[in-house]
C-alpha cells in the first residue's frame, strides 16, 4: 500500500502551491508550526492547504477511493494548538491544513458572526471589538476555532454564556461524500448536537456561525503568590462556585517552572463587566503574600486578555495535557494539590519543565446551558454542578524525559480520580481538548451520547469517515 496514488490524484485537482510534499521547505515550515513538538515530530507524506469550502469538498471526493481501499488516511488541522500527538497530524498520511480558509464576517442585524475554519480567535476578537461585541472563544488569541467549537470549550464568558460549542448556531460541514450541509437547532439537528462536543468525527467543518453579545472592556489578569496560600484559595474557589455569579471567571493553579526554580500559585481572574477591583474577586486578587511585580490585574479588552494568555504558553517544545473533572469539593481539590506537590521532585530536574495543576470552574450557570438549543453531547447538566475541571499541563524539552513526564501526569490523574471516586466526588466527564492518550473523553459522555454519536456517524457518513480519520476518537 502506498500513499503516492492519492497524492498524485490530489496534484491533478489542486494548485501546486496548495500541496506540499514531505521534505520541502514549505512542508517543513508548516509541520513545525504546531504548538507541541510531539505533534510536529509526526511526518505526513503531504500537507494539503485549502482556501475554500469547495477545495475541502474536492479534497474529500478525490481521496475517497484511496481511503476506502485503505491506501491512505488523513488528519484535519486547525491552528494546531492541541498538543495531543496525532489529533491534527498523521504519520505517513495526508494532513489537511485549514489555515488558509480565512474570513470573519459580522451580520450587524442578527449579531451573528461567521468564522471560517482557518481563523484564530484573536482575529475574531479584533473584528468584533470595533462593534463593541464579544463572543465565546478561546482565552488564547492563538487558538484555532475548530478545536474549541467542536469540543466544548471554556471562554472568559462561559459562566454567563455557556461552553463555546453551545454558542455556535450553525455549522457548515463537508461530509465524507463531499456534500456540504448546514446544521443548526432547526436543520440536521442530530448532527448539530453531535458536533457540539463530538470533535472531528463527522466531517470537516468549514464555517462556524456564532452568537455575539455586547461586550466592553472588563477587569482581569494574573496574580502570583506562594504555595502555602493555595489551600485557602481552594476554599475560596469552592465558596465562589456555590455562590452564583455570572460575571466572573476564576482559574487557580499551582505550578513549578524551571525558570523560577520553585513552585508558585497563580490565579487568573476575570470580572466580565466594566468594574475596577470588583469585591467579588478580592479573596483571589488580594491573596497575601503575593509577587506584586507580576500582578497584572487591570481594565482590559478581550483581544488583550487573549493575547496575555497566549503569551503565557510556550510553543515548539514538548507539551502535553491531561484532565479530569470532580465536584466542587474542597477536600478533593486539596488532596489533588497534595498529590501534585508530592510528584514535583520526580520531574523538577527535567530540562525546561513546567508542571502545573489548574482548577477551572464549571458553575451551574454554565452547565445549565448544555441543554440549550437542542443540547450538546457532553452529558453534563446543571444538576451535576458546580464542578471543577482539573488540568495537568506539562512542558519540557528533551525526548528522553517523555516517559517520565507523561508517566507522572498519568499517575497523578489516576490517583486524583481514585480519590474522588472513593469520596463520592468523581464525575465521569473528561474534556476532549485536554485529554491524554490513556483517557476516553467520548466514553465519558455516557452510553446514550456515545450511541448517538456512533449512529450519526453511520447515518451521515456511511462509516466512511471512520476509515478516513485514522485518529477519529469514536
Ligand atoms: C495557550 C492555550 C490556551 C488555551 N485556552 C483554552 C481556553 O481558553 N479554553 C479551552 O477550552 N481550551 C483552551 N486551550 C486548549 C484548546 O482548546 C485546544 O488546544 C484546541 O483544540 C485548539 O484548537 P485548534 O483548532 O487550534 O487545534 P488543532 O490542533 O488544529 O485541532 C484540534 C482538534 O480539532 C480538530 N479540528 C480542528 N478544526 C476542525 C475542523 N474545522 N473540522 C473538523 N475537525 C477540526 C482536529 O482534527 C483536532 O482533532 C488552550 C490551549 C493553549 C495552548
UniProtKB/TrEMBL annotation:
PROSITE patterns: FAD_PCMH. Keywords: FAD, Flavoprotein, Oxidoreductase. Pfam families: FAD_binding_4 (PF01565). Belongs to the oxygen-dependent FAD-linked oxidoreductase family. Signal peptide: none annotated. This is FAD-binding PCMH-type domain-containing protein. The keyword Disulfide bond does not apply. The keyword Flavoprotein applies. Residues 40-215 form the FAD-binding PCMH-type domain. GO terms for molecular function: FAD binding; oxidoreductase activity. It comes from the Eukaryota.
